[in-house]
Amino acid sequence: MTTPTRVSSRPQRGEGQWALGYREPLNPNERMKKDSDGLDVRQRILDIYSKGGFDSIDPGDLRGRMRWMGLYTQRAQGIPGGKTAVLEPEELEDSYFMMRARIDGGQLTSDALRVIGGISTDFGRDVADVTDRQNVQYHWIRIEDVPEIWRRLESVGLSTMEACGDVPRVMLGCPLAGILEDEVLDATDVIAETVAKYVGSPEFSNLPRKWKTSMSGCVDHCTEPEIDDVSFVGVRNADGEAGYDLWVGGGLSTNPKFAQRIGVFVRPDQVTDVWAACTAVFRDYGYRRQRNRARIKFLMADWGPEKFRQVLQDEYLHVQLPDGPAPAPAKHDQRDHVGVSRQKDGANAVGFALRTGRISGSLLTTIADLADEYGQGRIRTTTQQKLVILDVPDEKVEALVAALAEHDLQVRPSAFRRGTMACTGLEFCKLAIVETKQHAQDLYAELEKRLPDFDTPIGINVNGCPNSCARFQTADIGFKGSMVRDAAGEMVEGFQVHLGGHLGVEATFGRKFRGHKVTKAETADYCERVLRGFLERRTPGESFAHYVSRADEDWLL
């Protein structure tokens, strides 16, 4: 006797893809967005919360929709990293906010930078972070001050609109777009058009997760298109026409994947429509049932570029895009535009390293003044936590270099200062397990002392948790924050080590070695040991990433 097959009357959940009719059941984040669009929280902040104070904020807005306006509650002071996964959100959070101002394309005027600096000084305890996505973040922001902060930002064409949340985040662009002679093309206008048309639009205010975009014609691929959700990469077709190669599905965090080429050639006048179509594919076909699978990289892993192209063209664009060539490899391994670069108009762009992105509002204001004094008031942020002052004439370059150095802003930094990045870390982030900003600064300073003649570009990325806000998987040496046991058996702050991450030709994520971990106190010793081994064993011209790929495991532990 065979058992009859049971047929359930319950609807199949699938992956929660809207286009296939799966809108129920909803996880808490999807329910929150269905109950009220994230964009609607702006008016409640203005009318209710800024007047009633922190305790007046609805929990669904506080831990959900306020992100659509660039606001996260920051970590309460004094909570150790070992408590991060133990405490509830309301136990971890302070009554202050991290606020993110989006700077699309990294483009700023001196007036805008003064406003950014003044907000930090007046409302954020004079603390600011230049991020690795060209934004500026504040801390210690009170909800009562948000309307005035918005007023100031909007007076210079900036906002916090959709700086966080399940929306199109800041759109990355080359900081030297339109400046350098050798760029494939200038993406400034296509970024501006796309931002103007779609940022803040209800059409894309409810995506499955965050949506990270880059558009650039930079020959160095400085926006790191390999790890963005959707990227438009400058390329010339067989006829010599400049346009874009479309890449989709990059992302890091706990399941890193590189973007895949879709294989089409996109003309500049098509970019905004193609971007909107890609975003709509993600909105409608993205996986919404499980939050940890709601990024486009998971859909791309299942579909592949051929199916994505078919759906994009047939269901959304209703036009066939021509096949296109792959772009040339990145011209330089270092993508930060640090140093002095010749502009096509004969002036110079002067890029300089901060202290792992951490800066004061007062110093941002000083930089705005220097941009006026030595240039024409144009400043750019980079995807490596750096800044660039444009339009500096030859005769003023060295004077500007010296003026910046007076504030420990280095145009010609050591390899360690130049290559070290860090996320927000335990100081302010509710997800972090270890402190990062100060530790990363101490680390590069110590390595400068121990290896003063180190002559090879080296990326050292320090992350406070597995979410990879500072991209530990793509660094030469990536540190992922965790709690580890020290020699005495005590649980202390430390890091899992990833080695040999690399973008560009033969891109690869960093290697892990049997879960190799170091305590926070051991990081300088570990870096010194591994880097001395590299100096002893490298072949002429060999990069650290290539060395790691062939190294014996014992050399790297």
Automatic annotation (TrEMBL):
Recorded GO MF terms: 4 iron, 4 sulfur cluster binding; heme binding; metal ion binding; sulfite reductase (ferredoxin) activity
Stretches with biased composition (Polar residues): 1-11
Catalytic reaction list: hydrogen sulfide + 6 oxidized [2Fe-2S]-[ferredoxin] + 3 H2O = sulfite + 6 reduced [2Fe-2S]-[ferredoxin] + 7 H(+)
Cofactor(s) required, per the database record: [4Fe-4S] cluster
InterPro entries, per database record: NIR_SIR_4Fe-4S (IPR051329), NiRdtase/SiRdtase_haem-b_fer (IPR005117), Nit/Sulf_reduc_fer-like_dom_sf (IPR036136), NO2/SO3_Rdtase_4Fe4S_dom (IPR006067), NO2/SO3_Rdtase_4Fe4S_sf (IPR045854), NO2/SO3_Rdtase_FeS/sirohaem_BS (IPR006066)
Gene3D superfamilies xrefs: 3.90.480.20, Sulfite Reductase Hemoprotein, domain 1
S-adenosyl-L-methionine among keywords: no
Family from the record: Belongs to the nitrite and sulfite reductase 4Fe-4S domain family.
Functional description taken from the UniProt entry: Catalyzes the reduction of sulfite to sulfide, a step in the biosynthesis of sulfur-containing amino acids and cofactors.
Entry protein name: assimilatory sulfite reductase (ferredoxin)
Species for this entry: Blastococcus tunisiensis
